[in-house]
Amino acid sequence: MSNYNEKVFNEQIHILRDFLFHYSGFRLLHQEFDNLIKFGSQDFWIYTINAHYLQAINLWCMVFGTNTNETHWKKLGLIGDFKSIILSSLELDDDTYTTYWESVKNWRNKYSAHRIPDFSEPTPDLKLARTVALLYEDWVSTNIDDSINFSLKSYEVEFNEEIRKSFMYLLSPLSKEQSAFEN
Description:
The structure is a single chain. This protein is mainly α. 70% of the residues lie in helices and 0% in strands. The protein has helices at residues 6-31, 33-36, 42-64, 82-90, 94-112, 127-143, 152-182.
């Protein structure tokens, strides 16, 4: 059993679960955008999609952004360098990962959490951020007592099932209504 900051760990798990939920919500809404706007305001769905993305990036940065954040992975108190796990597991070199990490952190600092006038850097893709979150789960679970049981991947899978069911439920009656109206 490793010595670690349990309060930080508990907060990190909730933050990363919420990150995965918001990222999943963003992805699904983005995929279903053309269907969604058939039944309502395009602006509403754009703002909703953006809100999920903004929250996802903010949450990810709470654990993987700046070292000074109270819930940063280094505050967990485990011995070892998680960044080396990222590089080796994903077969990335330090420059590539650092460039990605800085783009996410800068996007959060200059657009998502704060606004810098004329900020125009490209919106980072969060696929790698998701992978890092899931790698973190593996790293933490190998460095903390085995009796601690959590699975970010399971949380994500369950949430994706719930949200897909919700979409089917929401869109199904609207589709029937739309068809009846058109006939």
